Amino acid sequence: MIRALYTAATGMEAQQLNIDVTANNLANVNTTGFKKSRVDFQDLLYQNIRSAGASQAQGVQVPTGIQVGLGTRMAAVQKIFTQGDYKQTDNDLDVVIEGDGFFQVMQPSGEMAYTRDGSFKVDGQGRLVNSDGYPVQPEITIPAEAEDITIGEDGTVTVTVAGQSAPQQLGQFQLVKFINPAGLTNLGRNVMSPTEASGEPITASPGQDGVGTLRQGAVEMSNVKVVDEMVNMIEAQRAYEINSKSIQTADDMLNIANNLRR
User: Fold this and answer.
1) Residues contacting 147, CB < 8 A, separation 6+
2) How far apart are CA 132 and CA 213, in angstroms?
3) Which whole-number Å values give the CA distances from 99 to 37, 54, 177, 188, 227, in the listed order?
4) Which of 145, 171, 180, 187 could anchor a disulfide with 140, C-beta 3.0 to 4.6 Å?
5) Residue 208 confidence class, pLDDT cut points 50, 70, 90
6) In this predicted structure, what is the pLDDT of residue 226?
7) Which among 142, 137, 140, 138 has a CA at the least distance from the CA of 126?
8) What is the pLDDT at residue 200?
């Protein structure tokens, strides 16, 4: 009977973590470029009371064994990199990646970080930066006299400068893809860093080598669907509740056994 108490407790703990992940998804429903997470569970060790195929008598084998499970645990929290909806902003510095790939930004530590958030700004030096001031790599500098900024599907950035009739090309966005983007580590602030699980970053120009193209004047919204998360929350709540009922039932049965009289 004690086994049931601990087994149900693992179920309650697992569903609590499930709710934590769901809550984070819902909290970031309006976060630009956010990718939702999904919890994967796996069962724990089994206690083998009788093995399948064991000899019951001469020439007789047991067709099925007796195994009692000891609960569940969280196996992984996986990022789902489906495309989010687009939000038209008509801001020249807002860019969407249509397809796979990440923008590259340089952190103050000198390490590269990667993001799907294309809501860029211009800092005091004219560099194209993200909301935290991390410059886009390779660096693109917008001149102060620029009147019109154009970002092509291939990532080419051109501007029209006052007094000049011909557009001036400033540089080109380079995107990065990973063999296993789910292996990236979230750093917060809409940026991620690579790990051994994600593989090495593969740099390519937009529209080439399997990376997406760019669209100017829009941003990618979160891929969280509120209805799906609400359904998942209800499922987790009911699973948590039924596990608590299992503990209560096991406790009631122990109480009955303790109160037996001869």
Assistant:
1) 159, 160, 161, 162
2) 24
3) 19, 55, 10, 22, 24
4) 171
5) very high
6) 96
7) 142
8) 94
Helix, strand or coil, per DSSP, at residue 199: coil
**CB distance 211 to 175 below 8 Å:** yes
Confidence at residue 262, expressed as pLDDT on a 0 to 100 scale: 55
Residue, of 262 and 151, whose pLDDT is higher: 151
The answer to whether the beta carbons of residues 71 and 44 sit under 8 Å apart is yes
Residue 2: the pLDDT is 78
Task: Look up tokens 């569940």; give the residue.
Answer: 72
Element (H, E) at 214: strand 213-216
Phi and psi, residue 191, nearest 5°: -125, 155
The reported pTM is 0.87
Residue 224 has pLDDT above 80, yes or no: yes
Report yes or no: 215 and 151 within 8 Å, Cβ to Cβ.
no
